[in-house]
Design goal:
The protein is an alpha+beta fold. Helices cover about 30% and strands about 20% of the residues. The protein has a seven-stranded mixed β-barrel. Strands 14-15-16-17-18 form a five-stranded antiparallel sheet. The longest helix has 24 residues. The chain is globular, with a radius of gyration of 26 Å. The protein starts with about 30 loop residues before the first strand and ends with a helix.
Length: about 500
């Protein structure tokens, strides 16, 4: 009132809040904004801290604005019978149905999305399985849009990233900035009171938030406005995994991990070497940036050699990586060795791309052992309960020399997706030569390895041999009864390999 009378109001000494950037929202696309009450962000944080080493999750309830921005009014966590695993979370569906019905009937809140944690895995973006699940659900009656929240944690803090999906582009998503309403949700106390004894609360007493992408903390320089390449498509997340694999192949004795900077830019850190590779806004048109961990750029200044002409990014990154890193604290390598290392990294990237196309991320898993890259893949055909696994060990001379093939078995549960990644430590592996007499020679004759032979073919040939051996033992026959026809006819062998290849792809 005083201001209308021409009297200057008293100065407010409270700190000024950083203003929000104005963002245009297109109702036909995934919204770049997600609105949430602070109390609900706190609840997610507390649930994540309840399960710091395995995945947890829950559901989001609220409504959508006229332009398609989600407003999160109430969050629930896991039910008593939810399944928590290191790489997966399955909600207690009876709990979800009961609570969801109550929230809708009593308070008219809609089920607008899901949340789950990737605990301490580091890369806080949807996995391939997450995207497949959301793209399957979005567009169903009542779900033209969906919000997915991915949480991560350290031992002390949590981060929660928001990703919006839309029925017009079901296979892609947009990382949304949080617009945090800095008060308790008007539904929180009412629902907690009305449904006391039904709603399960987190055990952790207090939330602890790390840096998150919000409408008030996004950097203002023009290069960083908008979504990062990493969040535009799920394929880009898989491509980033290939980049990490390439870096690991150069720094086998170092801790190499991916992390998100406060700016929202991803960075590969090579801890013991005091190096990191930042992927700036504008990547891949802009070059990755090689720098020290303290942010100081490298004196070698080799970033200028990055030119994106549309070729496969794994090939381009592999070439840039070897050129940039070979000068740092290492003696100059002979040109032939440099080219060999570059070719090996590019090959690893392309092999990972092929395997990702044929298998979901639960059916094969990269790992390392004694400096060798290893890929573990569920054996075809996929039996129930007792699951075969083919292990491919890439020696130092790969791809000039063929990989070493091992096989093993483990007991699979009856969940819809394989749990290979969780069971690797249970498997006792045997060399392919132990299958039957002369098995190693037979494998080489079937495979006919050359430097351009794919690991997928090596995997399929190994599957044929393991399957033939298991079938022979079951029927009291010799494994060669099934393999000899393939050895005697290259056309028949190629036809069999192609059939298995197509069946695997179809199963994914």
């Amino acid at each position: 009132m005083n201001s209308f009378l021409g009297i200057r109001p008293e100065k407010n000494n409270a700190p000024r809040r950083q203003p929000k950037r104005k963002t245009v929202v297109d109702a036909t696309r995934p919204s770049p904004i997600a609105i949430i009450y602070k109390s609900e962000l706190d609840i997610i944080s507390r649930f994540i801290l309840d399960y710091p080493k395995i995945e947890t999750g829950g559901q989001l309830f609220g409504y959508w604005t006229a332009t398609g921005t989600p407003v999160v009014c109430y969050v629930i966590g896991p039910g008593r019978h939810a399944s928590h695993n290191p790489t997966s979370f399955v909600q207690d569906w009876d709990y979800l149905e009961h609570v969801g019905a109550e929230l809708n009937e009593r308070y008219r809140l809609q089920h607008i999305g899901e949340w789950h944690s990737h605990h301490q895995l580091g890369l806080a973006h949807p996995s391939g399985g997450d995207v497949n699940t959301m793209s399957f659900g979005v567009g169903k009656p009542g779900f033209p849009r969906m919000l997915l929240c991915i949480g991560n944690c350290t031992t002390r803090t949590t981060t929660v990233n928001a990703f919006n999906f839309h029925e017009n582009t079901p296979n892609s998503y947009v990382q949304a900035e949080w617009d945090v309403v800095d008060i308790e949700s008007p539904y929180r106390r009412i629902v907690d009171t009305d449904l006391q004894g039904v709603i399960l609360q987190p055990v952790t007493r207090h939330a602890s938030h790390g840096q998150m992408l919000t409408t008030r903390n996004t950097p203002n320089d023009n290069d960083s406005i908008g979504a990062h390449w990493l969040t535009e498509r799920v394929e880009n997340v898989e491509k980033m995994k290939e980049f990490v694999l390439m870096v690991k192949s150069l720094y086998k004795d170092n801790v190499v991990k991916i992390e998100m900077l406060k700016s929202g830019e991803p960075q590969i850190s090579i801890k013991d070497a005091n190096l990191c590779i930042k992927f700036p806004y504008g990547f891949p048109d802009k070059s990755p940036v090689l720098q020290r961990e303290d942010g100081c750029p490298m004196e070698s200044g080799r970033q200028s050699e990055w030119t994106n002409t549309g070729e496969d990014l794994s090939l381009l990154f592999g070439r840039w990586l070897t050129t940039s890193l070979q000068l740092e604290s290492k003696p100059e390598q002979p040109e032939a060795d440099r080219q060999k290392k570059e070719a090996r990294m590019q090959r690893l990237g392309s092999e990972n791309q092929i395997l990702t196309e044929y298998f979901n991320d639960k059916a094969f898993a990269w790992s390392e052992n004694s400096g060798h890259h290893i890929v573990n893949i569920i054996a075809y055909p996929f039996p129930y309960e007792r699951q075969g696994v083919i292990r491919i060990v890439l020696t130092e001379n790969f791809p000039d020399s063929p990989p070493e093939i091992q096989y093993g078995f483990y007991d699979e549960d009856m969940t819809p997706e394989p749990t290979l990644a969780d069971r690797l430590s249970e498997i006792e592996y045997h060399n392919i030569s132990e299958l039957f007499e002369s098995a190693e020679d037979v494998f080489c004759d079937l495979l006919k390895w050359e430097s351009n032979t794919s690991m997928l073919k090596a995997y399929i040939v190994a599957c044929i041999m393991v399957y033939s051996d298991q079938k022979a033992k079951k029927e009291g026959r010799d494994a060669m009864d099934f393999i000899t026809p393939l050895l005697s006819s290259e056309d028949r062998l190629n036809e069999t390999i192609n059939k298995i290849e197509q069946k695997i792809k179809k199963l994914k």
